[in-house]
Specification:
six-stranded mixed sheet, 8 helices, 12 strands, about 25% strand
Length: about 240
């Protein structure tokens, strides 16, 4: 069985289509979406439609809940707030109902999925490898050894070994029985690790491997749409820098 885990699409249909094409090429059996389908970019409706049709498991991100008024956007940055106001006006009633139906976490086939930390998903904390206490809290809250998250837009493989948290130096790893993992899928629509390519995760149960996959896409097409829709120009500029 091959699971493709995607996250943080943020209304970027060009990136999502490129990732879906790559997932098809790699013959993944199931697609899991870790949330933030909408927000920032100009195709929230189309992205929601693709995820609704293609993903067998989907959970909510903070931007998804913000788009339907379930959480307050007072803490958003200016750019996130401005794009969210645009997004609220752009999505249909059907998409609102779909986003409202998404849970905060999901468990499937002995795997755990959350948008942010498994220990406090409704508070949307960011889990970075250098935030050791928060990462330990996340590991302690998960009932399974293999856990997938998003939210930071920064792909990574974190391992708990005894009382240590290890950041795996590579983007592929073989799963070892008796070891716990937190796998951050990165972002499809707005990478922030200084690599403009989309990111997602492929988990192969047969080979027991987890791999972070990078996919190039035509971000210039997304940039044109951002400007055409008068969304903040910074949102266009950051795509080519991967930040």
């Amino acid at each position: 069985m091959r699971y493709a885990v995607i996250s943080d699409i943020h209304g970027n249909i060009e990136a999502l289509q490129a990732v879906m094409d790559d997932i098809g090429h790699r013959k993944a059996d199931r697609i899991v979406c870790l949330g933030d389908i909408v927000g920032y970019y100009p195709d929230p409706e189309h992205c929601a439609e693709v995820v609704r049709k293609r993903a067998s498991v989907s959970i909510a991100g903070n931007h998804d809940y913000a788009a339907i008024g379930r959480i307050d956007t007072a803490g958003f940055t200016y750019y996130a707030f401005a794009a969210m106001e645009w997004t609220k006006a752009a999505i249909s009633g059907e998409t609102r109902e779909y986003l409202a139906s998404l849970p905060l976490t999901a468990e499937k086939d002995g795997l755990f999925f959350a948008h942010s930390s498994p220990s406090n998903p409704e508070a949307w904390p960011y889990l970075f490898p250098d935030g050791e206490e928060a990462v330990f809290d996340a590991f302690s809250a998960t009932p399974f050894p293999l856990n997938f998250i998003g939210h930071t837009h920064w792909p990574s493989i974190m391992i708990q070994s005894g009382e240590r948290i290890i950041l795996h130096p590579e983007h592929s790893i073989r799963i070892t029985p008796g070891t716990s993992y937190l796998i951050n899928a990165g972002s499809v629509g707005q990478p922030r690790d200084f690599d403009p390519r989309s990111s997602y995760v492929l988990y192969d149960t047969t080979s027991a491997t987890v791999s972070i996959i990078r996919v190039a896409y035509d971000f210039s097409a997304t940039q044109r749409k951002i400007r055409d829709n008068r969304l903040p120009v910074f949102l266009a500029e950051r795509l080519e820098k991967g930040r």
